[in-house]
Amino acid sequence: MDFVSIFNLTLGELIGVFTAAYALCALGLAMHFGYTGLLNFGQAGFAALGAYGYAIASLSFHWNLWGSFAFGVACAAAFALLLGIPTLRLRADYLAIVTIAAAQALYYAFGDSEWESITGGANGLSQFGTDFYKANPIPEGRYNLGIITLSQDEIWIRLVSWGLVALVAIILVVLTRSPWGRTLKGIREDEDAVRSLGKNVFAYKMQSLVLGGVIGALGGIVFTLASQTNQPTTWVSNFTFMTWTVLLLGGAATILGPVLGSAVFFMFLMLTQGLFEGLVNIGWLPFLTLAQVGQIRYLLVGIFLVLLVVFRPQGFLGNKKEMQFNG
Amino acid sequence: MANAQVDAIAKGAAEPGCAKVDPILVATNVTRQFGGNKAVDVAHLEIPRGKITALIGPNGAGKTTLFNLLTGFDKPNTGSWTFQGKDLAGVAPYKVARMGMVRTFQLTKALSLLTVLDNMRLGAQDNPGEKFFASFVRPLWAKKEAEITERANALLARFKLDAKSEDYAAALSGGQRKLLEMARALMSDPKLVMLDEPMAGVNPALTQSLLEHIKGLKANGTTVLFVEHDMHMVRHISDWVVVMAEGKIVAEGPPAEVMKNPAVIDAYLGAHADTDLGDVEISSSKDGK
Fold it and tell me: Is A195 on the interface with B (CB under 8 A)?
């Protein structure tokens, strides 16, 4: 077994694009759930709208980089308004039901052949990142970063995606420490009490839903820009649940929690992948085939999450008193 | 004596729905139906400005429902009401609060996982930092926030909660949460405070200080309307008592008068009409009125 290679690949996940993309989506959920108490089970829908919005704007509308980014974000914002207007006046459960259903509807719509000329149908879209990689200032070549070697494009997408993570994290820190964030936390605790104090609870919840959804859309955009492929099957509800896993690992009402949660999650997947494959290859796990290794990792993630909920419900970084999954 | 008390508040005799000399809240024909049950059926009600008015009645009389209707938390089937001359029917609860009519809840709604001080700050109005875009720019709201914090600390000191200001509200006792909720309602300098059972579950040692706080409100020119079951408290601090039974207002008047009213004894005590009013009689002799 090549431990050095396993170790290097695992560390590589620390700066991986998927790690950043999930961190963004989970930061959006932290806004929704951790700070406002909104149960959004459709983060995959927001991410999908970001990704498809970007790809469609650049392929079909021939918009430039900025226009495409803006369109992806605008689609997610519109989706948040559409879902929020009928449900945010109701109890929290209704938003959960509506978001999971709407995200699933989007998944089917994007994969349907009806709009194939725009969405690419079941095959999805590809090669929509030309402008994005043209903007790359890093000279062509292979760069040895110590543990991994990356091309100029691989470095560029990592810079942009982790730059976005940093930007979003800073914005959320500023917001949640402001009186605006305090009002949201009050709504998380008891919206009627906040209403009785003269705050327009509906408007606050809507602002939170739009902001968190837009952050999710950024996650979706960088997720697909990495390989310049956007397939409808990426945006199944699994995506949402993995985002929730990342959020709960790190701590729901924290900013660094989702980032740390995402890093731990992907490093764990890569580490167990390498270890199990190695063990299967040297014949120590005769009951497993190489193809089963991928699945058994998620089984372990599940067990890990159950243990976490039992023994550390606030996540890695959460404050036990402030957040115990109670929204 | 009693008549002078009536004349100071009401126009004419103290009877259900009577007009007040200076009403702050006027409600007409407010009804709320739950299925076949008319929970609230108030023909006319005026709340006198600058006084402490108690709203009493047996369980299920519709007191809390009337509170919910007047503050916009529930929608009536019919009715209109005005607060300081402004029509309030159909106005959203948060706008009602902004107009200066702030309520508390029967089941205390302390925001458990916010600190006591943050609970208080949330009660303040017109903080520019509570707007999404302005919240990014600290200089836009830092001054107002400092003012609010100062006010909050002063109120907390008045309510003897200052030692707890950095604790989560969840760490307070039931009685302290009642105090916090009342203090928080005062952060916005309301014209009318509506307290839903401020004494429920409060330990007797705290009762006295709560009573003083409510009297203090009146001294500061705030109108108080409260729901309460504790007759001793009603007798002790209210200037005017409104009695509800089965959704209707059955009696009004100064506390001493109302307690003697056969309709009240009937509605309030029902089968126990024969029992001594105990507290009421004792406290009235103590007060020497």
Answer: yes
Whether residue B213 is found in the same domain as residue B231: yes
Query: Which residue among B93, B127, B136 sits closest to A196, beta carbon to beta carbon?
Result: B93
**In whole angstroms, what is the distance from residue B63 CA to residue B134 CA?**
40
Q: Does B108 touch chain A (CB under 8 A)?
A: no
Q: Are B68 and B74 in contact (CB under 8 A)?
A: yes
Range of the domain at B237: 2-110+189-287
* Residue B114 to residue A186, Cβ atoms within 8 A: yes
* Residue B121 touches chain A, beta carbons under 8 Å: yes
B180 found inside a domain: no
Gap between the Cα atoms of B91 and A253, Å rounded: 33
The 10s digit of each residue's pLDDT in B129-170 is 999 999 999 999 999 999 999 999 999 998 889 999 999 999
pTM, full prediction: 0.90
Q: In one letter, which amino acid is A171?
A: I
Query: A-chain residues within 8 Å CB-CB of B122?
Result: 182-183, 186, 194, 197, 199
Three-class SS state of B267: helix
Closest CA to B231 of B205, B258, B252, B253: B258
- Asked if B234 and B55 touch (Cβ cutoff 8 Å), the reply is no
Residues B64 and B206 in one domain: yes
Cα(B52)–Cα(A131) distance, rounded to whole angstroms? 70
Cβ-based contacts of A189 with chain B (< 8 Å):
111-114
Contacts of A324 in chain B (CB under 8 A): none
Q: Nearest CA to A217 among A295, A105, A103?
A: A103
Per-residue pLDDT reduced to its tens digit, B109-121: 989 899 999 999 9
Same domain, B162 and B258: no
Q: Are residues B146 and B261 in the same domain?
A: no
Shared domain check, B145 and B66? no
- Assess whether B136 and B7 both reside in one domain: no
CATH number at residue B88: 3.40.50.300
User: Is the ipTM of this structure higher than 0.90?
Assistant: no
Say yes or no: B28 and B89 in one domain. Answer: yes
Q: Are residues B92 and A200, on separate chains, in Cβ contact within 8 Å? A: yes
Same-domain pairing of B103 and B124:
no
The tally of domains found in chain B comes to 2
